[in-house]
């Protein structure tokens, strides 16, 4: 079944970069004031993974499928049955589909997901299939600029 207005690869990548910087900059500034040094080293450890995972799981639940980056790009995460997202959907999508599977497959699942989003008609990646979700353009913003 074709999903309504599936979000493409480019929008998803840009939204992820925006979310990365939206999370990293404030935490880096806080660490600067605590430690007295400016460094992004903390993003290569478990601290970053936990913060990123919490953000990408909790924020779309609270904001009906949006993260800040997705909102800026006018795309959102939706359930395939068009109901509201649940904690189960987001845990399966983010924890199982994006974290555990990436470790188990040594990153190969990320590469496969890229090709799935580019070439599949419904633009669903592995983590979308696992979580029962898809990424869609938000029709409320059709023809409107949010900037």
TrEMBL record:
Keyword check for Transmembrane helix: yes
Subcellular localization, as worded in the UniProt entry: Cell membrane
Record's bilayer topology term: Multi-pass membrane protein
Transmembrane parts of this sequence: 12-34, 46-66, 100-119
Main location: membrane
Keywords attached to this entry: Cell membrane, Membrane, Transmembrane, Transmembrane helix
Chain coiled-coil ranges: none
Domain of life, source organism: Bacteria
Protein name in UniProt: RDD family protein
Source species: Sporosarcina quadrami
